[in-house]
């Protein structure tokens, strides 16, 4: 029976070794699985955060563009209002041929600038109309 005892001891030793090995393997597998799950959650959170930051960036960028456009438009309107206020009140045109001819000469001499025709007409009218 000496051989049976040795065999039994060998089997018990192998059983203990396999049980410990399986416990260690399951522990490592469990640890790796939890790490993988944690990394997947972190990746999902990073994607959500990135999407949120992109939305915030685009919203801020668009509000900056809107603000710039508003500044440009309001500046343009302010300049247009000032320009309209600084122009002399337009008189009904007197179609005297001499005034029309002189206004056209002034307009040509000054290089046909936009908005200048009214002033050229008024100047021609002052030159030709007798003061009285």
Task: Please provide a written account of the structure.
The chain is an all-alpha fold. The protein has a domain at 89-132. Helices cover 83% and strands 0% of the residues. The protein has three helices and no strands. It is rod-shaped. The mean pLDDT is 83.
Question: What is the average of the pLDDT values?
Answer: 83
Biggest β-sheet, characterized?
Answer: none
Distance between the termini: 152 Å
What does the radius of gyration come to?
Answer: 47 Å
Q: Report the β-strand fraction as a percent range.
A: under 5%
Succession of helices and strands: HHH
DSSP summary, beta strand count: 0
Structural class: mainly alpha
User: Any idea what the shape is?
Assistant: rod-shaped
| Poorly predicted runs | none
State the helicity in percent bands: over 70%
Helix count? Answer: 3
Summary of the model, kept short:
With 132 residues, the chain is mainly α.
Strand and helix layout:
Blueprint: H1 2-86, H2 97-109, H3 117-128
Task: List descriptors.
single chain; 132 residues; mainly alpha; 83% helix; rod-shaped
């Amino acid at each position: 029976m000496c051989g049976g005892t040795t065999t039994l001891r060998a089997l018990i030793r192998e059983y203990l070794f396999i049980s410990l090995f399986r416990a260690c393997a399951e522990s490592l597998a469990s640890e790796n699985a939890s790490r993988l799950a944690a990394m997947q959650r972190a990746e999902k959170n990073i994607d959500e955060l990135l999407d949120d930051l992109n939305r915030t960036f685009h919203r801020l960028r668009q509000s900056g563009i809107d603000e710039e456009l508003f500044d440009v438009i309001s500046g343009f309107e302010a300049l247009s209002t000032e320009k309209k206020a600084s122009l002399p009140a337009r008189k009904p045109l007197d179609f005297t041929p001499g005034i029309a001819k002189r206004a056209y000469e002034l307009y040509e001499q000054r290089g046909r600038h936009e908005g200048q025709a009214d002033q050229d007409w008024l100047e021609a009218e002052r030159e030709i109309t007798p003061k009285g």
